[in-house]
Amino acid sequence: MSHTAHIRSHRKPRPKSASKLALRAGVAGGVLSTIAVAGSAGPANAEPVTETIEMPALTLETPALATAVARSAEASQLAALDAELQTQEDAAAAKAAKAAKTAKAEAVRKAEAEKKAEEAARSEARASRSSERTTLSASASKSDISAPAGSVGTVISFLKAQLGDAYVMGASGPNAWDCSSLVQAAYRQVGVDLPRVSQDQSVAGTPVSLDNVQVGDILYWGGAGSAYHVGVYIGDGQYLDAANPSKGVVVQDLSGYPASGAVRVL
What we know:
Structural class: alpha+beta
Mean pLDDT: 78
Number of helices: 5
Strand order of the largest sheet: 3-8-4-5-6-7
Number of strands: 8
Low-confidence stretches: 1-7, 17-23, 31-44, 136-149
Distance between the termini: 166 Å
Radius of gyration: 59 Å
């Protein structure tokens, strides 16, 4: 067979793109140039190479390249997904922070409203107690009870002058009293020096029955010598005492709070 004979290819021809043809032409040209150089460098009598060699086609459809492209696309998708998730997390965090700020402001508002309501209630309670004391004082001053003459009258007059004063445990006047300090101060006006506490005052004079009690007698509640409260009888079934923190110094009926016993010191 002649060296110049063309070797037919059994491969089915297929259309080639311009880029593939250019690539193949460049590669083929480079190979032929290499062969030509090698031929010129050989022996002078060497037979010239005239056989055409067809180079394998280079395509972008090789398995390795396809895998690389697929991985790149997957990485791009993952990056986009991460960015979307981060955006959602940032939005959720901002929403939660806004909700927390709103809840805190609402809690502060409610606390301030409750505080104002409590202050208003305390102010109203103070005003009510003041009004009650004023009413009791006016009622007592208009009472038909008249202070008897002499030492007993002086005691009763002093007691009535303290109506409306506050009750404070341990206080001794002039504007706040407890039950025994008020009784002690009243009898001091006529030179009678009574003990300070109700237990001792309940046995400081001559015991008298409640059926025979007179104006100016000391009434006590509890046992004689262990009394927990004292007041002074002012007549007509009434007594005057420093009752408690809510009432202060008032006139009350024995029918509502019967005494346990009485003593006479004048």
